[in-house]
Each structure stands twice: as C-alpha cells, then as structure tokens.
Amino acid sequence: MIPTLKPDLSAGLAARVEGEGSRSHRMYDPATGAYVDCLRLTRDSLEPGKSYPGPILIVDAGSSLPLFSGQVASIDPHGMISVKRVGE
C-alpha cells in the first residue's frame, strides 16, 4: 500500500485579506428546527487551529459545507476541514 499525503491547501490561506470572505447568511438548522442567521465564510478565510462552531456556512468555488448547532469545524495546517459534534 502506498501512503497518500494530504495536499497543501494553505496557499489560499496565506493570500487571505483581513475581513474578506465573511457575511451574513440565513439557513435552516435541523438541529433547532428553525431558520437561523449565521456567518457565511469562504474556505480561504478559515485559520488553521481555530474552531468554528455552528451554525455557519463554509463556501468555496465548488462546494458549500453547512455546520449546524452542535457541530464545530476546525482546519489543520494543510487546509483540511474536520467537522465534529460538540463534546466528541
């Protein structure tokens, strides 16, 4: 078996401009059963080592990742996003 290395996605992180990539968004949160106002962040605006609790919407050019109440996202030094339930 050949090990697969994680791609380095940090180039987009380094090019981030302070305040860029965040704005308000309204989405349905199945954890609460209601529509909520949340932040909409671009993937490039996420900082390695920082936690992002839901509800929040993370977007990039090809996809979006909704995080609901009770979930938290973190980004590793390679730019990979991990999502966990709060308390795990």
What do you see in this structure?
The protein has one helix and seven strands; from the N terminus they run H-E-E-E-E-E-E-E. The chain is mainly beta and 88 residues long. It has one domain (10-85). The N and C termini lie far apart (30 Å).
Number of strands: 7
Percent of residues in helices = under 10%
Mean pLDDT: 83
Please give the order of strands in the largest beta sheet. 1-2-4-5
The proportion of residues in beta strands is: 35-45%
Total of helices: 1
Low-confidence stretches: 13-19
Number of domains: 1
Please give the radius of gyration in angstroms. Answer: 14 Å
Largest sheet: 4 strands, mixed
H/E element string?
Answer: HEEEEEEE
Secondary structural class: mainly beta
Distance from first to last alpha carbon: 30 Å
Shape: globular
What topology emerges from the helices and strands here?
Blueprint: H1 10-14, E1 22-29, E2 34-42, E3 51-53, E4 56-59, E5 64-67, E6 71-75, E7 81-85
Parallel strand pairs: 2-4
Antiparallel strand pairs: 1-2, 3-6, 4-5, 6-7
Give a quick precis of the structure.
The protein has 88 residues and is mainly β. The chain has 1 helix and 7 strands, in the order αβββββββ. Strands 1-2-4-5 form a 4-stranded mixed beta sheet, with no helix packed on it. Strands 3-6-7 form a 3-stranded antiparallel beta sheet, with no helix packed on it.
